[in-house]
Amino acid sequence: MTINQIQDEIIEEFALFDDWTDKYEYIIDIGKKLPPLSSEYKTEENKIKGCQSQVWLHAHMDGDKLLFEGDSDAVIVKGLIGLLIRVLSGQKPEDIAKATLYFIDKIGMSQHLAQTRSNGLASMVKQMKLYGIAFQAKQEVK
Amino acid sequence: MYKVFDVLEIRKDFPILNQTIHGKPLVYFDNAATTQKPQSVIQAISEYYQEFNANIHRGIHTLAEKATAEYEGTREMVRKFINASSTDEIIFTRGTTESINLVAATFGRQQVKAGDEVIITTMEHHSNIVPWQMLCEEKGATLKVIPINDAGEIILEEYEKLLSERTKLVAAVYVSNSLGTINPVKEIIDRAHAFGARVLIDGAQASAHLDINVQELNCDFYAFSSHKLYGPTGIGVLYGKRELLDSMPPYQGGGEMIKEVSFEKTTYNELPYKFEAGTPNIADTVAFKKALEYVNEISKPVAAEYEHELLTYATESLQEINGLRIVGTAKEKISIVSFVVEGVHHQDIGIILDTQGIAVRTGHHCTQPLMQRFGIPGTTRASFAMYNTKEEIDKLVKGLHRVVKMFR
């Protein structure tokens, strides 16, 4: 599936919820199920510092696909990371680099991106795209 | 004058409280960050712009005179509010942070030399840490920190050990914004004076809840903000003893703070104007007076007694939450409850409470060294003002039960 197809799928899933609590329960569930990042990748280098919670992001290539793994000490943020991974992980670096992530706004979670000071999520989105650009450049050099 | 303390009547004075957030009535428990404003304050700001906006002090026309009188009226009101001996000792700033920076940049630069020491406490807000760190770094001075016990109280015996002839300044918070602890500032001040050190008190949290008497405290500087006292943002106060303010160099240069300017030499204005360069925040200063009038009308001790009731009620009610631990259990506290919940991140707590219409603060509350002392990344903090109710605390407890169910 393309990035946008996955985004549309998530938007459809969230359309089923009419209550904020239900939305968050779903995100919490994703957060709880997201496999924890192995400790070797939970490095200072992979850490994206936020005012409220901490986020770790690890990226590596598998063939021509860029894979992401992430973690956070807060569950809701972890759930949102889970969604971002679902959308972006396994896609080509050039597609990640030019992706527009409209699903966050459509599912009503853009507040978590706007508050750049309160969590590392906004920085994480930026970092994922930067990885896309970096790995794309690396491939071109080859 | 409110004959009896009637919280429902008081709530009517704060229009912002009458709204819903995510479909639930707003429960505002973030008062230690900033308090809401009564109608009289909100109205005063627009009245100023509609009726007598003019630049102050130098104008000879009617509007300028009216604006000046109102502006200086607030200064007199502030003087009374903290019982300073003269309005010359009341300097208007942007807030507590600027007040502290002013002292660091003038008194600090002038008086602190290499090898000197500045003492602060473990529970300082970053605003009362960083300016002193910057000063000490610049001067080759040392910053010393008074330790606290597990309840979140200053250990006075340890403080005694830190004091010496090298101590130039003690900068201490009156009330901790993260824990609610009321510090024994009178003792802190007296002991510092015995060594010839000066004392700055950060009164940001204290001023809305405790009676402030700078002459009785005998502090050398006292800093606080209007916005934590039901007044507008962007206006604060630095009180300083006259002889100190007189001997300190000016802070910023510009209009208002000068007597005469020539390209060869400038002479500075008298107190308090020497420290007030440029056109000040007139509208908010004028409205600040209304906030002080409001607090006086309710009577601070009466409000404080009610707030203490809320504190006791919250402290007891929160115990029913499984795995909840209150951080900051000092004997003397204002109405702030900081807590951690086992297995649940404070950010998650804050997000879910917000969906219930409950506004709390989560994180390190700009006191990272204090959080490190307790070995935690942050807390959830509920801070109460005179317009909060026990029913709202019940909603917080209910919300937390829900949080625990969702995350465990």
TrEMBL record, chain A:
Q: Which residues form the signal peptide?
A: none
Question: Could you identify this protein by its name?
Answer: SufE family protein
| Domain of life (superkingdom) | Bacteria
Q: Where is the Fe-S metabolism associated domain?
A: 11-129
Q: Which organism is it from?
A: Rhodocytophaga aerolata
Record's family? Belongs to the SufE family.
Q: Which InterPro entries match?
A: Fe-S_metab-assoc_dom (IPR003808)
Among the Pfam families in the record, one is SufE
Automatic annotation (TrEMBL), chain B:
Source organism, top-level taxon:
Bacteria
Domain Aminotransferase class V: residue ranges: 27-396
State the EC number(s): 2.8.1.7
**Top EC group:** transferase
For molecular function, the Gene Ontology terms on record are:
cysteine desulfurase activity
Q: Tell me which PANTHER family the record gives.
A: CYSTEINE DESULFURASE (PTHR43586), CYSTEINE DESULFURASE 1, CHLOROPLASTIC (PTHR43586:SF8)
Q: Protein name, please?
A: Cysteine desulfurase
The organism named in the record is Rhodocytophaga aerolata
Taxonomic classification, please? Bacteria, Pseudomonadati, Bacteroidota, Cytophagia, Cytophagales
